[in-house]
């Protein structure tokens, strides 16, 4: 499965309803880490047209400030009489909010604040579903920070979107991580190791198509770590 199908599959997957529950509103909202927006455009060149076919009707960039709110419509209060059933249709508000973000600890306070403010604004006895998709991989540290911030109790699912190398031309592959070195310096060795694994997995895919790479040269500390990751991943697969 390629990255495009993988992401669309994430959008299409729902947690099952409990027995006796009415069918869920399938309208979704996507909160996007702006650093991943360019990659998503390369993976899904049709853009929002395709995403809307998979139920995503609302879009928002994840702000790095704690004062901004998610600007999606809130669901209406639960009906108390038959006249209220004539209220806004389910498609006019999202039932599922999906966060697509990098696994950066610095993002977690923002994420937690957004979820908790949204929860506080919901009408009584009305619920929303929250899914966090980490790209390229999840992080126990990030999950722990969300737990400490009191947001994990509202999160229904945590998923991974395995991004590695993206074709940007007929003969050019790129990880499209322009801030990778800065992130590694700020977030520490653990994040650098994750990035090495991302590029390493992508290079192994290149080998599957083009055959084994005979000579490996890693330039600098990050390059050397990436080569080591490739060899480690090879061992895991054998």
Structure description:
The protein has 238 residues and is α/β, with parallel strands linked by helices. The protein contains 8 helices and 7 strands, in the order H-E-H-H-E-E-H-E-H-E-E-E-H-H-H. The protein has helices at 3-12, 34-43, 48-53, 108-121, 140-148, 180-187, 189-210, 220-237, and strands spanning 28-32, 56-61, 96-101, 129-134, 155-160, 166-169, 172-174. A 5-stranded parallel sheet has the order 2-1-3-4-5. Helix 4 (108-121) links the parallel strand 3 (96-101) and strand 4 (129-134). Helix 4 (108-121) packs across helix 5 (140-148) and helix 7 (189-210) crosses helix 8 (220-237). The longest helix has 22 residues, at 189-210. The radius of gyration is 20 Å and the shape is elongated.
Number of helices: 8
Give the strand line-up of the largest sheet. Answer: 2-1-3-4-5
Helix share bin: 40-55%
Question: Radius of gyration in whole Å, from Cα?
Answer: 20 Å
SS strand fraction: 15-25%
Q: Which parts are unreliable, with pLDDT below 50 for 5 consecutive residues or more?
A: 15-22, 82-86
Number of strands: 7
What is the H/E order? HEHHEEHEHEEEHHH
What is the arithmetic mean of pLDDT? 79
Largest sheet: 5 strands, parallel
What structural category do the secondary elements indicate?
A: alpha/beta
Shape: elongated
Distance between the termini: 21 Å
